[in-house]
Amino acid sequence: MNELPAKLKARAERKSAKREAKKRQIAESAIEALKELGYANTSLRDIADKCDLSLGMLHYYFEDRSDLIIYCVSIYKQEFVRNIVEALNESRGREQVISAFSEALVSSIVDDEMTHRLWYDIRTQAMFDASFRPVVAEIEGMLIDIVRSAFERAGKPVPEQIEIYYALLDGAFRHLMQGQIGSETRTREELAATFRALLAQFL
Q1: pLDDT given at position 146
Q2: Which CATH class is domain 1-62?
Q3: What are the CB-based long-range contacts (under 8 Å, 24+) for 24-33?
Q4: Is the dihedral of CA 100, 106, 107, 112 positive or negative?
Q5: What backbone phi and psi angles, to 5 degrees, belong to 2?
Q6: Most CB within 10 Å of its CB: which of 62, 104, 110, 191?
Q7: Could you tell me if 176 and 191 are in contact, meaning their C-beta atoms sit under 8 angstroms apart?
Q8: Domain 65-203 listed as CATH 1.10.357.10
Q9: Using an 8 Å Cβ cutoff, are 72 and 32 in contact?
Q10: What is the enclosing helix (H) or strand (E) of 73?
C-alpha cells in the first residue's frame, strides 16, 4: 500500500536534489560574473551569458536578479564561515585561537578577495533594498557566532555586546581587504600580525 507513495517521494527528492545542484552550478558561474563586474553592473543577461543559458532558463531557477544574488551570497559566505569554524574547532586555548583565527582570516583575504568585495557590495545594497536584508542579517548572525566561539575556545567570558567586537574585527578585515586591492598591499605575515594584535586585545 505504501510502495507507490514511497516511490513518488523518492522521485520528488531526486528531482529536488537535481534542481538544487543545477541552481548551485548556475550560482557558481554567476559569482564569477559578479566578481568581475560588481552587483550594480551585472545584469541577468550578463549572468545568463556567463552560464551559457537563456534568460528564460535562468528565470526557471531564480525569480529575479535579487533572488539569484541572494543565493550566490549565501553559498560563498557559508563556505567562508565553514572554513573559519573548522580552523577554530582545531584550536584550544588563547594562543592557538588567536593564531588559527588570524591565519584563516588572512587566507580568506588572499584567496577570496574578489568574493568578499561582492559581500560588502551586497551588504551596502541592503541599506537600500529590503530584499537583501534577511540574508545579510542571517550571514552576520553566523559571523557574530564565530567571534563568540573564539572567546569561548580561548577560555574568555563572552562579552554582553559581542556584536561590537564583531564590528571591530569586520572593520579591520574590510580595511585590510580593501588595501590589498589598491596600493597598500601587505604580505601575509603583515596581515596576520595585524589580526593577531587585534585579537590579542579582544581575548
Answers
A1: 93
A2: mainly alpha
A3: 24/75, 25/51, 26/51, 26/53, 26/58, 26/61, 26/62, 26/68, 27/68, 27/71, 27/72, 27/75, 28/75, 30/68, 30/69, 30/72, 31/72, 31/75, 31/76, 31/115, 31/118
A4: positive
A5: -90, 0
A6: 191
A7: yes
A8: yes
A9: no
A10: helix 65-89
Distance CA 147, CA 60 (A): 38
**Sequence ranges of the chain with CATH classification 1.10.357.10:** 65-203
- Give the CA distances from residue 44 to residues 92, 127, 153, 172, in Å, rounded to whole numbers and listed in that order: 46, 22, 43, 33
Query: Where does CATH 1.10.10.60 sit in the chain?
Result: 1-62
Q: How many whole angstroms separate alpha carbon 155 and alpha carbon 200? A: 13
Asked if 162 and 156 touch (Cβ cutoff 8 Å), the reply is: no
- Give me the pLDDT at residue 1, please: 52
